[in-house]
């Protein structure tokens, strides 16, 4: 047991060393940022084409993530593998594009053809490297310098702190472009229609039951008519509108159970409905809708426009798309 505890303590100490080393690299990156960052962002922002990112090895893996983040957040971007670039993929790069080439040392031989291509056709190049005097640094129109910090790897060899710093710099570029281009949640949703993100960013108008699916009656509806409407539409509620089509009340299956002991033979919607029910706007995000349902302890809600119902949402509609 003592041996196991010692090993566990050793593992934790090593974890602390790694994390501290990488934090140190990020802090160095933070302190080294200068006007070149703004110049690089200006270049990306003014580009008529795409952002082409390239890098070899671990730098390439980080480059793929940066390209994916930019593309998903409103800045068209993709990754070109430097080895494939030398075998025809340079044709994917146009004069209107901006190239971001990544190499910690700045001396990755596989990037040579991309560097030469950018110079030959006047394509702007942003270099990300720790060595501005390297081949990559000298080829770049703008250099974003990585910190010259030690790797967290105990051998000092495996890219660790350097790739973390590169990833953070990529996030800096991505978030800056989101701000510059006024990229919205709605636009983000358009690029993430699947999975949890797509569900979270759906709006009430995307989930609501409309037209003939919506349980709606007039204020003079009888109890029998209310039960029939509630049963046929299977949403556990009915909304009631006046002659102008404005929502005035609501009745749920829970209300029906609470009224079972009353004499409802002559009752109409006006007598038993909940007046001025809670309603929402069609532009409300799904997460906000479920928050209202939970806080008000209700399972149904109407979506209105100019006081007129345009849709109904049941809490099951939210659960089906993974919103809780």
Report on the structure:
There is one protein chain. The protein is an alpha/beta fold and 324 residues long. It folds into 2 domains: 182 residues, Rossmann fold; 117 residues, CBS-domain. It has 15 helices and 12 strands. The strands form 3 sheets. It has a 5-stranded parallel beta sheet with strand order 2-1-3-4-5, sandwiched between helices. Helix 1 packs across helix 7, helix 2 packs across helix 7 and helix 3 packs parallel to helix 7. The longest helix has 31 residues.
Question: What's the topology here?
Answer:
Blueprint lengths: L1 H31 L2 H12 L4 E5 L2 H15 L4 E3 L2 H4 L12 E5 L9 H9 L3 E6 L5 H5 L2 E4 L15 H21 L3 H7 L3 H6 L3 H4 L8 E3 L4 H11 L3 E5 L5 E6 H6 L10 H4 L1 E2 L3 E2 L5 H11 L3 E6 L2 E7 H6 L4
Parallel strand pairs: 1-2, 1-3, 3-4, 4-5, 6-7, 10-11
Antiparallel strand pairs: 7-8, 8-9, 11-12
Helix pairs in contact: 1-7, 2-7, 3-7
The percent range for strand residues is 15-25%
**Uncertain segments:** none
Secondary-structure element series:
HHEHEHEHEHEHHHHEHEEHHEEHEEH
Number of strands: 12
Structural class: alpha/beta
Give a summary of the structure in a few sentences.
Helix content is 47%, strand content 17%. With 324 residues, it is an alpha/beta fold.
Which key phrases capture this entry?
324 residues; alpha/beta; Rossmann fold; CBS-domain; 15 helices; 47% helix
């Amino acid at each position: 047991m003592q041996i196991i505890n010692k090993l566990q303590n050793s593992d934790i100490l090593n974890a602390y060393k790694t994390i501290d080393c990488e934090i140190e690299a990020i802090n160095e990156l933070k302190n080294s940022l200068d006007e070149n960052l703004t110049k690089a962002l200006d270049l990306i922002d003014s580009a008529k084409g795409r952002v082409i990112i390239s890098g070899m090895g671990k730098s390439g893996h980080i480059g793929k993530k940066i390209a994916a983040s930019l593309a998903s957040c409103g800045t068209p971007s993709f990754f070109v593998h430097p080895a494939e670039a030398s075998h025809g993929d340079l044709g994917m790069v146009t004069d209107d594009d901006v190239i971001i080439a990544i190499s910690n040392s700045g001396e990755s031989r596989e990037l040579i053809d991309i560097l030469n291509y950018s110079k030959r056709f006047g394509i702007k190049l942003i270099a990300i490297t720790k060595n501005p005097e390297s081949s990559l640094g000298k080829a770049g129109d703008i250099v974003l310098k990585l910190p010259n910090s030690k790797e967290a790897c105990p051998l000092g060899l495996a890219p660790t702190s350097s790739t973390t710093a590169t990833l953070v710099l990529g996030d800096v570029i991505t978030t800056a472009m989101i701000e510059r281009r006024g990229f919205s949640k709605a636009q983000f949703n358009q690029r993430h229609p699947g999975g949890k993100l797509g569900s979270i960013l759906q709006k009430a108008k995307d989930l609501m039951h409309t037209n003939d699916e919506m349980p709606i009656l007039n204020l003079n509806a009888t109890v029998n008519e209310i039960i029939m409407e509630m049963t046929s539409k299977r949403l556990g509620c009915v909304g009631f509108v006046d002659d102008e089509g404005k929502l005035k009340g609501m009745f749920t299956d829970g209300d029906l159970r609470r009224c079972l002991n009353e004499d409802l033979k002559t009752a109409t919607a006006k007598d038993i409905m909940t007046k001025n029910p809670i309603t929402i706007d069609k532009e409300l995000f799904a997460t906000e809708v479920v928050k209202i349902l939970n806080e008000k302890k209700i399972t149904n809600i109407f979506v209105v426009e100019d006081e007129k119902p345009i849709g109904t949402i049941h809490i099951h509609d939210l659960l089906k798309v993974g919103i809780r």
